[in-house]
Design a protein that fits this description.
single chain, alpha+beta, six-stranded antiparallel sheet, three-stranded antiparallel sheet, about 40% helix, about 20% strand
């Protein structure tokens, strides 16, 4: 028996079948189903519904470092509260949005100074300059480039706006795909089919935050989760979709269900692709569903709590990783330039020089994370290197 396409309602011939991710691959989904969408419907929904969802979730995907099976999460342009323009990269790193080129006239012509956000960006600029100035040696210039890290003056604000009729259809499609994968004929899911097929159909989902429907939620994990529960007691086929532990929605897939109770769950950590063992409780009746649709089970304060539970730890991890990088790079630079000789003790002059170089390199980070002025930040950096030196001197050779 041929399957029916969830979007167009036509039978799916074997030659026109497709692989559909239950959760879009662009946000880290892995599990796929077949016999669910025509190839053309899969392509169209991926470039419209799933693309809209991915765009809304991209800031979170970049900050959390989503691991995709193929491709990579696209960078996105952001503007800080100080009006600075950057590109947001995976891991929450910021990069210059465009290179800066400074030309200075000199008697024999001009010097050109290029400031770029990455080696790749610098290479593109130099290749462009080479077309006008053929003598430019791109590799030689790049080999002499100086790497410098600076920090944004303003704050990056994360837009948590979510939902709407386009991305909302991707959400409902995910719940319906899991129902299909669990063996439930999608023809029983009339509410979901109407929403996917009819432009003016009422959305069959709403947000739920008044309590946590997930049991066994791993703390600090930006959980992706899809669940379904076909319950003859309530006659409802319900679904649940959660993205990054933050966006949480209950879906009514269908009504009038009279078969055996059927449950299914697909949950994973999108940073690794690892499947997670959780339970989802969807013990709602028709009145509850209407209340969810009418935003009576939404809660702004609980939304913020959900956000903080997963986003706070990732910011802490990012800061710790940057601190370790700054300390490592500053120490390496200071050692390489203080005049010290391997396996020999530093002279008092060399030690003073090492501390001075470390403070010069590390102060911008201390200034950035503390908000202190330059002298105060230098004092913190100096206190840190003094502790490192004291610890090293007290350790037996």
């Amino acid at each position: 028996m041929q399957s029916i396409c969830a979007i167009c309602g036509q039978r799916i011939a074997p030659a026109d079948d497709s692989e559909e991710h239950i959760l879009p691959g662009a946000i880290g989904g892995r599990r796929i189903v077949r016999g669910f969408l025509h190839h053309g419907c899969n392509h169209h929904s991926g470039h419209t519904w799933d693309a809209a969802l991915e765009k809304q979730l991209r800031p979170l995907a970049l900050h959390f470092g989503v691991k995709r099976q193929s491709g990579r999460t696209l960078r996105m342009a952001i503007t800080t509260t100080a009006g600075e323009n950057f590109l947001l990269n995976a891991g929450g790193q910021l990069e210059m949005s465009r290179p800066e080129i400074k030309r200075t006239p000199i008697p024999s012509g001009e010097t050109i100074q290029v400031k770029a956000g990455s080696i790749a960006m610098a290479r593109d600029v130099l290749e462009g300059l080479k077309r006008k100035y053929p003598k430019v040696d791109v590799e030689s210039v790049l080999a002499g480039a100086q790497a410098q890290r600076t920090y944004a003056q303003g704050v990056v604000r994360i837009d948590l706006e979510f939902g709407g009729p386009v991305s909302g259809r991707s959400l409902v499609k995910s719940a319906l795909a899991l129902a299909h994968d669990a063996g439930l004929p999608i023809e029983r899911c009339g509410d979901a089919l109407a929403y996917l097929r009819e432009a003016d159909a009422e959305p069959c989902f709403g947000y739920h935050y008044v309590d946590d429907l997930v049991d066994g939620r791993p703390s600090t994990t930006p959980l992706h989760c899809v669940a379904i529960d076909a319950n003859p007691r309530t006659s409802l086929i319900l679904g649940y979709v959660e993205y990054f532990g933050i966006h949480r929605a209950v879906v009514c897939l269908g009504r009038g269900y009279a078969g055996e109770r059927l449950k299914a769950i697909y949950a994973l950590d999108p940073r690794t692709g690892e499947s997670l063992d959780v339970a989802v409780h969807l013990d709602f009746d028709a009145a509850d569903v209407r209340a969810i649709y009418d935003y009576e089970r939404d809660d702004a304060e609980k939304r913020q709590e959900a956000f903080g539970a997963v986003f706070g730890p990732v910011l802490t991890d990012h800061r710790a990783a940057e601190r370790d990088r700054v300390v490592r790079d500053s120490l390496n630079f200071a050692w390489a330039n203080c005049g010290g000789v391997p396996d020999q003790s530093l002279s008092a002059e060399q030690l003073a020089r090492l501390k001075e170089l470390f403070v010069d390199q590390a102060t911008p980070w201390w200034k950035h994370v503390t908000g202190l002025d330059e002298p105060a930040a230098r004092q913190l950096a100096l206190a840190y290197i003094n502790q490192v030196v004291a610890a090293a001197q007290s350790t037996p050779a």
